[in-house]
């Protein structure tokens, strides 16, 4: 089977895929911002510090 220009070996139309990706990328900004605005960065840092402290305690007990 001869490969057509602008198509992958499997026969996918490259331009069509690029067009779909561009359309999807337009709406993704809102989706990502929605969840980012609900995230409390200070709270996440605090939880990460607590988790690291627990990890340190647990690894000390196993030695």
UniProtKB/TrEMBL annotation:
Source organism superkingdom: Bacteria
Keywords: Repeat, Sporulation
Region named Disordered: 1-63
UniProt KW Repeat keyword: yes
Compositionally biased spans, kind Polar residues: 1-18, 47-63
Signal peptide boundaries: none
InterPro entries named in the record: Spore_gamma (IPR006341)
A GO biological-process term: sporulation resulting in formation of a cellular spore
Recorded family membership: Belongs to the gamma-type SASP family.
The protein's name in its UniProt record: Small, acid-soluble spore protein gamma-type
């Amino acid at each position: 089977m001869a490969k057509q220009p602008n198509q992958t070996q499997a026969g996918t139309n490259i331009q069509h895929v690029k067009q779909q990706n561009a359309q999807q990328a337009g709406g993704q900004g809102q989706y990502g911002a929605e969840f980012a605005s609900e995230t409390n960065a200070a709270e996440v840092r605090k939880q990460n510090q607590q988790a690291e402290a627990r990890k340190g305690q647990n690894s000390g007990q196993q030695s």
